[in-house]
Design brief:
With 250 residues, this protein is of the alpha+beta class. The protein has helices spanning 50-66, 76-97, 145-151, 157-161, 200-203, 208-217, 220-233, and strands at 6-13, 23-30, 35-45, 104-114, 117-123, 127-131, 136-138, 183-188, 194-198, 240-247. Helix content is 32%, strand content 29%. The mean pLDDT is 91.
């Protein structure tokens, strides 16, 4: 339990196929503004540099969040845009210092909880879900080629699941000076909700029905164990990283 009265569990596992875990997760509390941040990043890079990218961006976001001294709900989008701008600078510095010439970048999903608001933000295809006790709803937006086709009704959901380009991103944090257009949304806080932030290594291996059932029927620590076990049963072909967060009533 944290000072913000949220209970959370973390899983970060390389999976069955990958030798290295290029995902990275973070958590921070800012008592000054009464807010708590959770995030998951899924790194991309040749020769194992994806782990450097995900770690650098998460650490930069946490550093910027921890330094905030004033918070206004209607300024949340500008605040997160600034976090991500600083993370681009951090990523660029790592790329230059490590002399990385290959593909180098990461996705990220950010959840910020305050006393009266929930803020969701993401770049790429790392997701945030909200479980209200009955329904599991994706609150993030997939920045992918296939999701663009879905949005234009050019393909069906079934076609999207098996599309050969389903992993092609339309946005990522790369440190190459490419402008970002993060997805950001704000909603009123509901303390009955449970939140799940996860890399695609989880949601590509474990379907929504299983996730919903795990969150509904189990303590979140058992839900974590059940979802990881199910991901392994289905192949665990990618790194698997996720956080489950719920409010603790005292």
């Amino acid at each position: 339990m944290t000072d913000m009265e949220h209970l959370f569990v973390l899983c970060s596992d390389p999976g069955k196929v990958r030798h290295q875990n290029e995902d990275f997760a973070g958590h921070a509390i800012n008592k000054t503004i009464g807010a708590e941040l959770f995030c998951v990043a899924d790194g991309m890079g040749g020769y194992g540099s994806g782990d450097l990218a995900s770690r650098a961006v998460v650490n930069a976001v946490i550093r910027e969040f921890s330094a905030v001294t004033h918070f206004k709900r209607d300024a949340a989008a500008a605040m997160i845009a600034d976090f991500l701008s600083k993370s681009l600078e951090a990523l660029r510095a790592v790329k230059e210092s490590a002399h990385i010439a290959s593909m180098f970048g990461t996705t990220i999903a950010i959840l910020i909880l305050t006393e009266d608001a929930v803020i969701y933000a993401n770049v790429g295809d790392t997701r945030i879900y909200c479980f209200d006790g009955k329904n599991l709803t994706q609150k993030s937006h997939d920045h992918t080629f296939v999701n663009g086709l879905l949005g234009k009704s050019l393909i069906s959901q079934d076609e999207a699941r098996v599309h050969p380009q389903k992993h092609v991103l339309t946005q990522a944090i790369t440190g190459d000076g490419i402008p970002l257009e993060p997805f950001i949304r704000t909603e009123p806080m509901n303390r009955d909700h449970i939140y799940l932030i996860c890399s695609d290594g989880l949601y590509n291996m474990v379907d929504a029905d299983f996730i919903r059932a795990a969150l509904k029927q189990s303590p979140i620590s058992k839900a974590r164990d059940d979802m990881l076990k199910q991901a392994y049963a289905n192949g665990a072909t990618d790194n698997i990283t996720f956080q489950i967060i719920k409010y603790v009533f005292i």
